[in-house]
Design brief:
0% strand
Amino acid sequence: MTEDLQQPNSAQQQAVATEKIRSNEVQKYIAAAIDRLSTAVAVVGFLGPVVSFANSEIEHRPSFYVVQSIVMFSSASLSYGLHLYGRLQLKRGLQ
């Protein structure tokens, strides 16, 4: 009789398994959203200045190139950091 009280019934086990599956799916969703954000940051912050450099119709000042280089480096760093954070969220959720 004491064995029945100590072991969870199948409904409780199923509820725990369902909650774990739900938690994993939420973590995968969060990781995917962060990864998409990192891609967007890379495209806008890195490729945007590259296109503006290629615009030869406008005479750019030297300070323009410095600012654009800082923007490119910052966005590349932020994008990589977001990608790593997404991986961390995915590993944390699947444990």
